[in-house]
Amino acid sequence: MQLLDDVDQLPPGLRFVVAVGMFDGVHRGHAAMIRSEVAAADRLDGRAVVVTFDPHPETVLRGSTPLLLCDPAEKAALLGAAGADYVVIQRFDQKFADQPAATFLKRLAAGRALVGIVMTPETAFGRDRDGTLAAVESLAPTLGLEIIHVDQLLVGGRRVSSGRIREAVAGGRLAEARRLLGRNYAVTGEVVHGDGRGRDLGFPTANLAFGGPVVLPPNGIYAVRATWDGQSADGVASLGVRPTFGEGERLLEVNLFEFGGDLYGLRLRVEFVRRQRGERKFGSVGALVKQMERDAQRARQILTERPA
What we know:
six-stranded parallel β-sheet, 14 strands
């Protein structure tokens, strides 16, 4: 998979099929869409190109900051794993937003052979979202491209969507999120220095800082799996405000089993496997440490029962 940051960087002469969208989380519905795109690209003797955006269009168009299911780097990796040959993380600004769908498609095709576009009934792009399925169907003969129709994916009688997954994660319904994503929900952040309290208690932790607003499950203790730079480790994570020490900022702190190395400055991906309990305030540090020992033991058991 080749990663680009502007559609104009697509190679001259490229023959391709395109899918356009935010693809936040790259859930099962997105994966089905990419599989259909790859099949169409093979049939049409082309490559599969996915165009997505950063920042989220809502940030530019409405000044809001949506909580995201994955950051651009993880999104690109997931799209590549789904089969995309090229992933364009297009910078979304007002100038880009002002392009009508027809202008955008002609820009994609300039000096290249755009032979197909993948669309669902909900797909819409371009200025004022004028690139609907009906609109692109009217443009297709002129542009010489085929529309690859993909039906919406239903789970539990409802459409799989990023919004539905956000609600499930934020509500603590991790099993539901897993069914919709096709994998455990995970977040990725940079390991930063904390106050060292975990190490003092005998449970050194990796503290995560996020590059943007991310969806997090409710506060509590979680059995987790972490990956970084081709390495992995099981662990137990605390998400919350640490009420035993006086409430502070909300933090995700991860204690990795059988690992004592230095992770500072690295990107750590933390996969939430199961929530063990809610966050509690303890009457003493000793009582907290005993509970942390039980939490770690329980996390090991959960992760043994749920092999990666």
